[in-house]
Each structure stands twice: as C-alpha cells, then as structure tokens.
Amino acid sequence: MTTRVGRRPPSALVGLAVALVVAAGCVVGGTSEPAGQEPGGAASPGAVQTRADGTTSVEEFQRDVTDARRIAERYWADRFRASGERFRPIRRVVPYQRDGEVSCGGQGLPRNNAVYCSAGDFIAYDVNWSVGAFRQVGDAFVFYLLGHEYAHGVQTRLGIQYRFTIEQELQADCMAGAYLGDSVRSGMLELDDGDLEEFREGLLAVGDDPGQPWFAEGSHGTAEQRTESFFRGYEQSLGACGLG
After folding, report:
1. CA nearest to 62, candidates 5, 3, 142, 121
2. Strand partners, 113
3. Can you give the pLDDT at residue 204?
C-alpha cells in the first residue's frame, strides 16, 4: 500500500451511544495463525517476496507499522472531533518475540499473536509472527492488523462491550475495514495491485478453526464472517459497524 500521510480525511460523525453488556477482559483482540504456518511456531525470516510490492525487509515492515498507526490515529481523531469529542491515541505499540515478554494486567502474552491490552492501553504483537504474515500475505495485512487492534482501543474509548467475544471481534474487523476504505477514498492511502486480494487472504488466514463454537470465549468468527464484516466496513464506512 502507498501512503499519502500529508492529507487529512474528511470528517464523519461517530455515534457514541452503544449499550454496555458485560465487562471485557484485559486483553481484547488478537488473530489466529496464518495459513500454512505450524501452530506454535514463529515465522522465521526468509527470501519470500510479497506479490504486491516485492518487499521482504523488516525495515519495510516497520515502516508499514508506523504508517498504519499514524493513519489510524489521524482517522479516529477526525471522527471523534466531528462528534465533539477529544480523541486520546493509544499509548504505544510494542513488538515482542518471546512468550511472556510483555504482560497485560499481569498475564504474559503468548507468541504468534497481536492484541490490544486495555489495562495498559497498548497494542502488542509478536514481531516474528507478524513479519512472517507480512511476507506470506503481503503488506496490506499489516494495515489490517493494526487497524483491527486499534479498533479495539476505540471500542474501549467508546465503552463498547458485548456479551460474546465474537461480537466484539467482528465489529473490530468492520471498523478496520472502515478505517482503510475511508482512508483510500480520502486519498490518504493508495491501493497497490493485489492489495484487496491480500486483505481477503489475510482474513481467510485468521478465521477460527472449523468447529469452534461461536459463543466460546475468544471466538473471532469464521473466515467468511470476518471477511464479510471487514468488507462491509470497507465499502460502507462506520455506519455498517453500528457507529454513525
């Protein structure tokens, strides 16, 4: 994806009234392992190129993380401002490499994951796993990943708490889609060849395993449900996510 970070997106009204159901845990969000990767194994750097732009370097990955975070902060600040609210950016984005290296509310975070921690107001991600997904799926996956976890931070700021994990997760997918779709339409982001397909492949890779009960704690939704939620937000903006 190509960024145009000098431009500001148009404002859009965010509806701030959402029913509170039950309290969420300290760790909100996360993804499953990409397809083709052994469970529990971090992806190691290799000489595989992403189809869209041919990049493989950790430096390019880090630039994409920085750009995705900066655009998400600007996007949500504009939406809150349009509603007469002040937006407080997520405090930090933290890479880690080992089980338990980073903790959330006293609980160590596992490898092969990315999460938003409401207790510390930060996003943390396994850098080896994330770089592996970046190389396997493409650079668009990085923007989705940051957008999804940033959406959990926005849910916390809006007081959005659902009874079932899957409801929280599918809304975050929709919000990530809205952030990306609106940013493309405003000219802040420019899609490269293959980016839409990368979104689809990334979402297919992070769906729940077949047979996962939808009501189980930690359920995120099937690949089809996550894809549908993301592209509904991408095409229709925040109104499709119950915001606005």
Report:
1. 142
2. none
3. 85
Q: Report how far apart the first and last C-alpha atoms of the chain are (Å, whole number).
A: 27
Beta-carbon contacts of 92 under 8 Å, excluding residues fewer than 6 positions away, are 122, 123
Q: Give the three-state DSSP class for 69.
A: helix
Q: Residue 84 CB: number of other CB atoms within 10 A?
A: 8
pTM of whole model > 0.85? no
Decide: 163 and 21 in contact? Cβ < 8 Å: yes
Please count the structural domains in the chain: 1
What proportion of the chain, given as a percentage, has pLDDT over 90?
Answer: 65
Q: What is the DSSP letter of 10?
A: P
Size of the chain in residues: 244
Whether 234 is in a domain gets the answer yes
Evaluate whether residue 14 is within a structural domain.
Answer: no
Asked if residue 52 has pLDDT above 60, the reply is no
Neighbour-count burial for 33-72, b at 16+ CB within 10 Å, e otherwise: bbeebeeeebbeeeeeebebbebbeeebbeebbebbbebb
Range of the domain at 58: 2-8+23-37+52-241
Name residues whose C-beta falls within 8 Å of residue 171's C-beta, 6 or more positions apart in sequence.
Answer: 151, 155, 160, 162, 229, 241, 242
The reply to whether 98 falls in a domain is yes
96 falls in which pLDDT band (50, 70, 90)? very high
Q: Mean pLDDT over residues 217-228, rounded?
A: 92
Q: Which residue has the tokens 């809304």?
A: 171
Asked if residue 226 is part of any domain, the answer here is: yes
34 in Cβ contact with 43 (< 8 Å): yes
